[in-house]
Specification:
- With 256 residues, the protein is α+β, with helices and mostly antiparallel strands.
- Helices cover 21% and strands 25% of the residues.
- The protein contains five helices and nine strands.
- It has helices at residues 30-42, 78-87, 140-150, 198-210, 218-225; strands spanning 5-13, 49-50, 59-69, 92-100, 112-120, 132-133, 173-180, 184-191, 240-246.
- Strands 1, 2, 3, 4, 5, 6, 7, 8 and 9 form a nine-stranded mixed beta sheet that branches.
- The protein is globular, with a radius of gyration of 20 Å.
Length: 256
């Protein structure tokens, strides 16, 4: 029996119509749709493993998955990518496919992940579903002060969804900052890993600071409590984007 070849696939997707990335019963997900399309094009059952899991309604500008193919190596030329994109729905797009060693892993080999959360303040039909509209502009200076405090910690149990099956709530955040744009603001955060619902809970907590409901230093007590009920409400999924997943330089030719 011929050894299987492992491939990485780079893609992006609009998460509005999906119940997240990961396959689940009685709900349509990005992984399910991608598996079916790859199976049709490659003419064998394909099961992908993603670089992580995004929640219902969350978008991904950059996402990676791996899968194994038996027999002869597949043609991973632009024509194959076009063939896959032709049968995928318009809200999922393949960017690249490339062979990797058998031990390469889309999830466990990733060294950095970056998310953005977008907020706007005036009604805009073109941002509906892609940014969260709030009425009053929060104090960005206070939120950035609190964001720097968050970076001093590594145990983020207070920002994790309850009853998740993870071995540890330890994450190393290397960037957490709010940026102002012409039409709104966005939060950018980078870490080696994220817990379920973590970014949306952090944003909700920082907005409490920005609205001056709590002071920046109160974030320390929230984190040290390790209690989800002490942190802010999770913000809606529509404004959240996975924007970058980083791997060791070799053996990942990630550029298109």
């Amino acid at each position: 029996m011929a050894a299987k070849q492992r491939y990485f696939i780079a893609l992006s997707y609009d998460g509005t119509n999906y119940h997240g990335w990961q396959i689940q019963p009685n709900a349509i997900t990005v992984q399910e749709v991608l598996n079916k399309c790859l199976s049709v094009i490659l003419r064998e059952p394909i099961e992908t493993t993603g670089c992580g899991r995004t929640d219902t309604g969350v978008h991904a500008r950059q996402f990676f998955a791996h899968f194994d193919v038996g027999g002869e190596s597949i043609d991973h030329s632009p024509s194959t990518i076009r063939s896959i994109n032709a049968i995928l729905p318009k809200d999922i797009a393949i960017k690249n496919i490339f062979p990797v060693p058998a031990e390469a892993h889309a999830r466990f080999d990733a060294t950095l992940r970056t998310y953005e959360y977008h907020i706007h303040f005036n009604k805009d039909p073109f941002k509906n579903g892609y940014s969260w509209e709030i009425r009053d502009k929060p104090d960005i200076g206070l939120m950035n002060k609190a964001a720097q405090i968050i970076m001093e910690y590594t145990d983020f149990s207070c920002f994790s969804k309850s009853n998740t099956q993870v071995k540890t709530n330890i994450c190393k955040i290397i960037k957490a900052t709010w940026v102002e744009t012409e039409t709104g603001i966005f939060f950018e955060i980078s870490a080696d890993r994220f817990l379920r619902n973590m970014v949306r809970a952090i944003v909700g907590t920082l907005l409490m600071v920005g609205k001056q409901e709590i002071g920046p230093d109160m974030v320390r007590g929230i984190i040290e409590s390790k209690n989800r009920s002490k942190a802010g409400t999770s913000v809606p999924a529509c404004g959240l984007y996975l924007t970058e997943v980083r791997y060791p330089l070799a053996p990942y030719p990630l550029t298109p």
